[in-house]
Amino acid sequence: MTDVFMGRLPKGADLVEALNALCAERKITRGTVQCIGALTRARLAFYRQDRFTYAEREVAEPMEIVSGQGNVSIRDGMPFVHLHLVLSDETFRCMGGHALPGCEIFACETVITPLAGPALVRTFDAPTRLPLWEGSWEPAREDS
Ligand code: ZN
User: For 59-116, what is each residue's pLDDT tens digit?
Assistant: First the structure.
């Protein structure tokens, strides 16, 4: 496990790609991600549960990152950051969704907290058709 990263990501970089690169460089395989700041443009997704496909939305205007929350696990053998964003525009209205590559940083303050324990690995989950963590929590049974 490495130290907590608390730092600024560079203007012009792609948010998702920069976070993935940072986790790969620091060998972070399990952890949490927080970020606030601003984007010059954004690209978000919404998973249509009835169709098992993502709807995508391009936002071609400056936005505040009101809240960025995510996690780090392993996908296809590499550290993978799963990030959701709440963004606001200049009228202070918010939108949000799953962050895709295509979110260009204006300024971004980020905290990545590595967590001890075995790496969480994403594999195909048949019921949702999403790459989710292997295994799931099951409620304790009271039949003992
Ligand atoms: Zn998501």
Answer: 999 999 999 999 999 999 999 999 999 999 999 999 999 999 999 999 999 999 999 9
Report the predicted TM-score, pTM, of the whole model to 2 decimal places: 0.93
Looking at residue 126, its amino acid is A
Tell me whether strands 5-9 and 78-88 are parallel, antiparallel or unpaired.
unpaired
C-alpha of residue 143 to centroid of ligand 1, in Å: 36
- At 143 the pLDDT is 67
- Length, in residues, of the chain: 144
19 with 68: CB under 8 angstroms? no
CA of 84 from ligand 1 middle (Å) equals 6
Q: What is the pLDDT of residues 58-67, one digit of tens each?
A: 999 999 999 9
How far does the centroid of ligand 1 lie from the alpha carbon of residue 17, in Å?
15
Domains of the chain and CATH, by start: 10-111 (3.30.1330.80)
Q: How far is the CA of 105 from the centre of ligand 1 (A)?
A: 19
Distance CA 137, CA 90 (A): 41
**What separation in Å is there between the alpha carbon of 85 and the centre of ligand 1?**
9
- How far away, in angstroms, is 48 Cα from ligand 1 center? 12
